[in-house]
Specification:
The complex is a heterodimer of chains A (about 140) and B (about 425). Chain A has 5 helices and 5 strands. With about 140 residues, chain A is of the alpha/beta class. The relative contact order of chain A is 0.24. In chain B, helix 3 packs antiparallel against helix 4 and helix 3 runs antiparallel to helix 5. Chain B has a single domain, classed as Porin, CATH 2.40.160. With about 425 residues, chain B is mostly beta strands. The chains are: A alpha/beta (about 140), B mainly beta (about 425). The interface between A and B is large, with 38 and 46 residues.
Chain lengths: ~140, ~425
Amino acid sequence: MMQRATVLLLLALLTLTVRPAAADLVVVAGPKSGVERLTQKEVVYLFMGRWRQLPSGIPALPIDLAIDSPERAEFYRRLVNKEPAEIKAYWSRLVFSGGSLPPYTTEGREGLIRLVSNNPGAIGYLERNQVDSRLRIVFEFPATP
Amino acid sequence: MPLKTSRSGKKRRYLAHLASLALALASNACLAETDTDLSPKRFQLGGFGTLGAARTSTNEARFSRDQTQPTGIGKNLDGKLDSLIGIQANFRATNSLEFVTQAISRYGPHGDFRPEISWAFGKYSFGPDNLVLRAGRMGLELYMQADSRHVGYSYLTVRPPVDFFGGLAFHYIDGIDLVGTLPLADGVLKIKGFGGQADELAPIEQGSAILSLRGNPIYGIYADYQQEHWQWRATYAQMSFKHDLPAPVATLQNLLNQTTVPSAIALAKSLSLTDTTSRFYSLGAVYDRGPLLVQAMLSQIDHENQIYQNTQAGYLITGYRIGQFTPFAAYSWSKSKTKQLSSGLPDDNGGPLSQLNASLLGAQTRVHTDQHTYTLGSRWDFRQNMALKAQVDFIRGKPESVFLYSSTTPNFNGKVNVFSLTLDFVF
């Protein structure tokens, strides 16, 4: 009994310490965005509010997933190597100095897919296996060795 | 005088009108927003704040955050320097038109925490933010990041370097600005022009008198270039004065005039601020790459009037994030040049003329700065939307370096250590 409990506990601890493989995130746009491909720099400029126009000339509408979603944290870690608190501090400076507003936040992946497929300027990020025919992949992070 | 009162009254009514408009429209907000509608939320209410406590190593100088605080702190733990709260409402009338109002309660010119409207403007975007026009009351970007000085959560240190920002007594202008943004090479170039007038007050001699900056015209322009991890900024701004300094400088001017000696009268005139212009030149650079942040700024201030001293200042901050902690180190300095002033009055061995010359020297001494500061600290992002910061400043200056303090005693030796703790938050 005791042994069994110990083994179970060990197993539980192991599964907790094994981090899930890093999400394979991609940046997506709608079919009417007029955009085939974005560079990482362009994605940074759009999501950090420095530039608000897609290369096709359409006003860009970057979309974030919910503040506590793992994809969102992972996205900014891979994009600019920043933690969620740093991204929040960055936007606090812009918002409270009367500058620009941060990306629109949507709850859930289904909402994001709907928004991106219905708005030509919308761009968002998702796990690759959730991308369907309504979306176009416009940026993939370089593979980490 | 009555003319002035009615004008500022009108301005206040206009600001109140803007604020009530935003709030009235806001009650209509948050109506139907389907999930396919991507327009940002019409109405957003948010805020920021800091709970701070600080003390210094000496009572021979009163350390303050900037020139708007009438009395600074000494050896006793005090919360007034950094504690503040701000509330901001954004209302998006259309995709191109937005109204923003912000009020801040902090320890200010009147020696209390009375709230003040810091922003109240309308913002119109031509195209997707490529050209943005704002009108109303707005943050004054005299230096890079000067318009987010109160948002402690947005930066690493406990407060913006006092050597650099402490000499300023103004935060906003009532006027207009225009920002143009365009891609250049593989970066983004931003040009901003602004113009308007100040509406703030600077306490003098621990709040016993007030220098009014109200109605002072301010103009400026900057060019800002962001390229991947780098940001560069060059700014020029100028302010002209509409009011003179109160006592003790006003008293000195009176006495000089009473001597009827031409050189003394000429000196009295050169001490006057009215219709003189002060010019602010600055350069800023930021290198921000993942966990590493390096920030540096340089400034030069030139005053046409003879009482304030031309000043050079600068700072360098570097921080590196390790998990939830970001330790940082900073170096800053401020150095002003004493102007050669003479009343032309002969010393009369402790008589009235000697006393006059002595008070001239006293007035000049009061505005001198020559110091540098080493800062060490850490920011801890211990939970969402909150950060704790601890910081020690070692200020090393000449005993004559007194301008940035609200007061000093004759025993002051130029050395002050400041110990600070803050809790910064946004909501």
